[in-house]
Amino acid sequence: MKFVKHLLLLVAFCLVSSLAVAHSPLCDCFDNGDGTITCEGGFSDGSSASGVGMTVKDGAGAVLQEGKMDANSEFSFPKPEGDYSVTFDAGEGHQVVIKGENIVQ
Amino acid sequence: MKKMTWALALIAVFALSGQASAHFMMMHTPEIAQEKGGDMDFRIVFTHPAEAGHIMDMGGVQDFYALYQRGDAEPQKIELKGYLKEIAWANPESKGKGYSALIPKKDVRSMGDYTFVFIPGFYFEEEEGVYMQQITKVVANVGGIPGNWAEPAGLPCEIVPLIKPYGLWTGNVFKAQVLSEGKPVPGAEVEVEFLNHMPDYKANAVSKDGIVEYPHDAFVTQTIFADADGYITYGIPKAGWWGFAALGVGPQTEHNGKELSQDAVIWVKAVDMK
Fold first, then answer.
1. CB of A73 within 8 A of CB of A51?
2. Does residue B139 contact residue B264 with C-beta atoms inside 8 Å?
3. Residues pairing with B102 in the sheet
4. Which residues pair with B169 in a beta bridge?
């Protein structure tokens, strides 16, 4: 029974993620080299990411900072020490997670 | 006397056949659909790309920049003229000058569309006694977020695509509008050429062998005309780079007291489905 439940969840997840294709979330972050990080986001159809929630977490998953994409679909924050990740959260099936180790100049 | 006439006719035929391929500002960069932002290298040569023919002196550079836009954010102008370097370029049977430009990641790191605009100086075509200036565009994308690819760049004359010019499959129809001072050019004559010899960035030369063979001169430069609203359509038959040049559509018609053909050029790249 548990297996069926999991399978259904998986199917549901696949359905949701395939719906995202026409409007998939895209986000990329850069190390500005001055102790700050800037993330830029958007969608594959060109629509704005302004107002999309941004969360910065440390390696253990604790929230370090929360904010929103500005009018230009950008979000900047101080570069955390150690491991971290950034989540671009435009709702279910519209999330992008970027690991700190992949954020370079 | 009759002999003389024949000789003249023969000379005329040779002179004409020498012009079977069209003049094109080639503005090339290895990839226009980039997954991530990174350095972008360019080679810019005034030549005949379908046959890697004669290299011409483009008469210097007036401007080189990119118009960047991500989604519906504010467009930005990125100045690029400072990155241009004069280089010696070699085609199989012709040598000449061209330009390279290595644009660092910092200028092209962001996701979105980059409309690269290159405005050369004036080339004097001695045989015809006319000047030529080809205002050239290439649209690149980083990361898949579209931007201003379908927007006019505000040039004196230009070709504005109606299909994403960096996301073309082989066999797609390239549709675009020819504009002069922002207005459609009905019946504009547009030449189409395939970049038949791939540029070698290390050697600053092109491959000796062409990718395709032409069965007849008529296939080297294809000619299409814009409709009554300035729209052109062209089915792209093969993967690779395709150049479109709208001839004499610009508002400036004279330079140095001589006739000027101010042309609008755009380059697109088609990719095979596999």
1. no
2. no
3. B41
4. B271
Q: What is the pLDDT of residues B98-148, one digit of tens each?
A: 999 999 999 999 999 999 999 999 999 998 999 999 999 999 999 999 999
Fill in the amino acid letter for A19. L
Q: Give B18-41 pLDDT, tens digit per residue.
A: 445 789 999 999 999 999 999 999
Hey, of A23, A50, A52, A73, which one would you mutate to test binding to chain B, going by the most B CBs within 10 A of its CB?
A: A73
| Side chain identity at residue B211, one-letter code | I
Q: Is residue B82 part of a domain?
A: yes
Long-range Cβ pairs for the range A54-57 (8 Å, 24+): A54/A86, A54/A87, A54/A88, A54/A89, A55/A86, A55/A87, A55/A89, A56/A80, A56/A84, A56/A85, A56/A86, A56/A87, A57/A84, A57/A85, A57/A86, A57/A87
Q: Range of B226's domain? A: 20-271
In a domain, B121, yes or no: yes
The interface pTM score, or ipTM, of the predicted complex is 0.78
Q: How many domains does the structure of chain B reveal? A: 1
Q: What are the residues facing A68 on neighbouring strands?
A: A53
End-to-end CA distance of chain B: 63
Q: Give the chain A residue whose CA is nearest to the CA of B105.
A: A105
Domains within chain A, CATH numbers bracketed: 23-102 (2.60.40.1930)
Structural domain includes residue B5 = no
Mutation test of the interface with chain B: which of A21, A23, A24, A26, choosing the one with the most B Cβ atoms within 10 A?
A: A26
Residue B8 lies in a domain: no
Other Cβ atoms within 10 Å of B20 Cβ, number: 17
Judged on CB neighbours under 10 Å (0-12, 13-18, 19+), A82 is exposed
CB atoms within 10 A of CB B164: 16
